[in-house]
Amino acid sequence: MKTMLGKVAAFATAVPFAISMMISAAQAEPIRIALAETPSDELAAFFVALDRAKANGLDHEWTAFSDEELTIQAVLSGQMDIGFGTPYAALQRSKAPLRIVFQLSKPKFFPVTTKKYNSLEDLNGEPILLHSRGGGTDSIANVIEERVGMTFGERSYVPGFSNRVAALLGGRADATIIDLSNKNKLMRSEASADFNVLEMFEVEASDEALFGNLTWTQKNEEQVDIFVKALVSVWQDMHEDPTIVRRETNPDGPIGQLPKEILDELDGFYADAVEGGLHDPNGGGRKPRRLPP
To answer: Between 20 and 125, where is the model more confident?
Structure first.
């Protein structure tokens, strides 16, 4: 009788343990992150946040897509769980419940041209080089057309701010839209006298964002919470000391493997970003409306 009771007790103990192991295994599925570009200095803070999230129990894997549209489609189709990019056109035209989870950066963009142009109006009918179709720079170009009352000529798409700067320097483009850091690098270089930064109005919106399917984010709230808390911690630490990104970059990770000249400029890159207000330390969101006194 005692033996039988012992066996029952052992079985009763083993069953919840086995169920617990099954649940843990189910929860251990890594979240699949879609990037709209290959790892670069622009993604260094993001990868620091990924490392912090991993240290707090978040298992993940990432894939860099060659085109931003592919990134968005991968999230829409369920091939990937969460995306890094600018899904605004998809949010407008798709019935899929995409939701922005975290504002990674604000659109501090600058129209930069050769000396052929001196104002935004001069770009009426002229070709321009942008990041991706339906992305942040494409949207900014649309806003410029609406605000200024003009229309750009042919739009060509080359991902990566530094790649578009290289196109300007190489004489393969006369006009593009780039971010604060690359604008500063260009205008501090020996070639600065060959280019104009056109006067631009302020745009209050999000540029890069972390986004996911609403159904997936609701089912995986714990994982999303770990990820967002890691991002907030890095963004807030970065505002206190921009060198935190370089100091916490894993030398064996994708950012740590970038060329030395890029790694050496990380401190300046993020100091410019913080000074220019590119990153909201609280991850964006709606701002409270100020009522008149």
So the answer is: 125
